[in-house]
Amino acid sequence: MSHVAGAFTGIVRDKLAELEDGDGSLVGTAPTIANSTATDVEGLVADFNALLAALRSRGVLAS
């Protein structure tokens, strides 16, 4: 796994941990999101921001 992909995975894992409601389940429902095909940091940032926007639109993350 590349350094960028590893960092992205860690960020996602941390954000998901923040969403747990104490019993291991997540608050809200997550939308279906395609896997990132980013090949550079800018593409990864765009994919991550799209993920955050999708989670906000479903009420999983606060706006």
UniProtKB/TrEMBL annotation:
Listed InterPro entries: Phage_B103_Gp8
Cellular localisation: Virion
Chief location of this protein within or outside the cell: virion
Superkingdom of the organism of origin: Bacteria
Keywords: Host-virus interaction
UniProt xrefs under Pfam families: Phage_head_fibr (PF11133)
Protein name per Swiss-Prot or TrEMBL: Uncharacterized protein
Lineage of the organism: Bacteria, Bacillati, Actinomycetota, Actinomycetes, Streptosporangiales
